[in-house]
Please model this.
Amino acid sequence: MKFTLSIAMNPLDQLGELARAAEEAGFAAIALPDSLFYAETVSTDYPYTPDGSRFWTAETPWVDPLVATAAMGAVTSRIEFYTSVLKLGSRNPVLLARQVGSASVLTGGRFGLGLGVGWLPQEFEYCGVPFERRGKRVDEAIDVLRLILDGGMVEYHGEFYDFDKLQMSPAPPSRVPFYIGGHTDVALRRAARVADGWSSAMMKLEELRQTIARLKELLAERGRADDPFEYQAVCIDKFGLDGYREQGEAGVTDIITMPWVFDGVGFDAPVEPKLESIRKFGAEIIDKFEE
Model:
């Protein structure tokens, strides 16, 4: 079992200290969320809350996850980083490949790319990308990213993206793992087809158990039953040593958490109580979980 620290919605000047504390406490990774902007008016509900409302505001701090990776990677040496998840649908994969490759190189290969389509039509529209056929476009974009990031002189001629031979140097020092987010069957099939793992949004344990079982079925159908595959979970109803062990029994391999939430510390609080929560979580959960 791995434990990953989420840094979502924290003040940006705290990120370096949070990353160092997480590394010292035994966390395996930092999960970086993605939000391009806050649209005042949205044309669809947020899919991961019961009432469809967003749980952040226009003033909530966000950082580009690739920039944050470079900054936190510079003050750490072991801990890994991955996006959870980056919205690929509104981004150009050639430009993104340069960013991802840079993050991987600057962290010595400590970066993984968690990817989702994106739920908000306004993000597509304001970035000049059609919302229609977004799934097909994302599938092609994933192919483009993998092709370029694997290194060497490459070309691609698809329906949505088309380029002659090019090379981005330096290539990542190791293969960049891809994790796919999303709870729909289409997303699960995409994860089984092209990914090294799957990343959940907020889910209860029973939902996670059912989803992981479905993913294992899909992996087996593709002859991937024995391949390494990560199940990254944000579980909202099982905590503490016993709860985390229940998650492991359900198939979770990577628990994404925010220790200060359990101590009643808010996102906008000073950094010191958050650091203390991270240290306590390392001593009382991570160390004991491994015993």
User: Anything to note?
Assistant: The longest strand covers residues 197-203.
